[in-house]
Amino acid sequence: MAAKAHLIDPSECCLLLIDQQAGLAFGVGSVDRQMLLNNVVALVKTAKTFDIPIIVSTSATKVYSGPLMPAISQHIPDVKVIDRRNMNVWEDEAAGNAVIDTGRRHLIVSGLLTEACVSFPVLSALGDGYDVSVVGDACGGLTVASHELALRRMASAGATMTSWIQVLLELQRDWTRHETYEGARSIVETHGGGYGIGLSYARDMIHPV
């Protein structure tokens, strides 16, 4: 099944954050964990900037995984966190209905761990006819190999693989879009590494003649 070839429209999508919890982040071996957290925060800020609904679900908060990481929760204090038992968000009534209730048919997904709590709902949503974009650098797996294999399985099923910076640039597309310019630029400067340094330099040092 091939993914539909179209650019992300902020009016059609919602962000699904799955199990971004410290207890699970401890097990991530596919990427530097601080970089992973940087990417997730950037993605959350992007969704806020473009007024995209955010669904947050956690699991095993009391017995192992802990709450949503504070570095993330501080940016979305108004978003209710839905705790669940099932590894698959799509099979949890409250979390699954929260996604359905947005009315959005394009899911942007970030979560831990890629091998299970990310891939299971992605495959289920695809089976129900949703478009799904998996933000690969805002997901973490136990090992590099198992993370990449899970991404490959989701891609083969029809999910689109992307990165947080591609999501932001795809939503912005034109730097003359003034309503989101400041928010998008600030996210890139704060979280975008060398690209962010370049944007900051351009703003402060390059002036029209």
TrEMBL record:
Keyword Protein biosynthesis: no
Top-rank taxon, per record: Bacteria
Alphabetized InterPro entries for the sequence: Hydrolase_YcaC-like, Isochorismatase-like_dom, Isochorismatase-like_sf
Keywords: Hydrolase
GO molecular function, one term: hydrolase activity
Pfam families on file: Isochorismatase (PF00857)
Protein name: Hydrolase
Organism: Phyllobacterium sophorae
